[in-house]
Amino acid sequence: MAQDRFATLNREPTHVVLAVVVQIRGGRLQTLLWQRAREPDAGRWSLPGGVLGAAESLEASIRRHLAAKVDVAELSHLEQLQTLSEPDRHPDERQIATAYLGLVPSDADPSLPADTAWHAIDALPPLAFDHQGIVQAARDRLRAKLSYTNIGFAIAPAQFTLAELRDLYAAALGRAVTATNLQRILVRRHLLEPLAEHRAPTSAGGRPARLFRFVHRSLEITDEFAVLRPRS
Amino acid sequence: MAQDRFATLNREPTHVVLAVVVQIRGGRLQTLLWQRAREPDAGRWSLPGGVLGAAESLEASIRRHLAAKVDVAELSHLEQLQTLSEPDRHPDERQIATAYLGLVPSDADPSLPADTAWHAIDALPPLAFDHQGIVQAARDRLRAKLSYTNIGFAIAPAQFTLAELRDLYAAALGRAVTATNLQRILVRRHLLEPLAEHRAPTSAGGRPARLFRFVHRSLEITDEFAVLRPRS
DNA sequence: GCAAAAGTGTTGTGTCTACACCCATGT
DNA sequence: ACATGGGTGTAGACACAACACTTTTGC
Lengths: 232, 232
Fold this sequence. Notes:
The structure is a homodimer. Chain A is an alpha+beta fold.
């Protein structure tokens, strides 16, 4: 295949890697954006990333580029989203872009360079190029996976109360979630396990909340084939 | 981003596009493979595809390359799977590959070139490069989407009996499926609609089977957010 | 005691699997 | 008539949402 030749320009397009780095901050789903200094689209916010190196994989590349913006050790999960290739997606040159979804636990607070900031996904500024659609795809992917995988581990701290986890799920899903049912679903599926410790109540009083943690801290499919599956 | 420079070789890798073209033939899930004529991996079976052109999108490119193997009009569905980028995935040169999943309805029988043939996915020959894993990913994607989308339209003919559809689902899922429950699930979700016509029984007798068709013939999510969703 | 927050019990509903039973045709 | 394959009825299991109720704390 590599030897095939056909009658088009032989110049390879530039391959860039982008990431939608998502964290729940202040009860809202937010993503990391970087303000472009140069044309095209100077001044516009865009997804962090950069050009793929000659000897690195896409995942290694996005980790390398993100390291300039955040502490990569804070990334609890990273997965490939899609590759964009419309010939006119970049005004100046032919550019292929592979987008990743990265998740940061809600208790991390990485320091950021001056040109980089968190933005709420439901109130984004105008974004450069086709980045708006990539962010929406990332949000949809996260929402879907909250339903059939254990991906909650990647947005939550190592330990948390159910009320805290409920707020994280509610922020990610964009709708109210009850702690009661959330607990039953996640415990029934063996995603969540209770710890012996409790969290002391605030000055407002209330019963001390039990702490929980996710059983596994890497992605697992927990509800495969919802339908057309035999009982046993 | 495009202007960024860093201390690696500036030569862009070759970008190829591959497709796992899937059809159910003879009650088995099969995929289209092409026998490599040249080194590396000469003689090995590999996924059809080719080099991305300078002015085309990935999807346009895979359609163009597939046109050399099958009648592209037979493709009922085409979606991007993933992009592979391990630096050593090709022995001779740096190569990025974007893989697609293509579906062909079971009643199509496209004519094929001499170097191309259908192979049952559960009994593949050794494949070139990392193509084995791509085929598995394609199969898993199809199986999952049969549960929560209307993707059945893409493996089925325009009209079919429930017994025929059951056999297609069974072949794709790799497990027994009952026509009774399949009908109820798909009719309840308004994916399937009955037609007035019936199919005449064979010489073996039996009640004439009603014909059905899919309501929509493009991909739709039909069972989003199985969990944590209010009763509405 | 009372407010506040966490946690449990329980009921009802909808979706699915499984299986028995009925229907329509050819020979 | 009876074999063959298509189609329907129905019961039971299960997972889930909803909500009332109980528990444990601070003030």
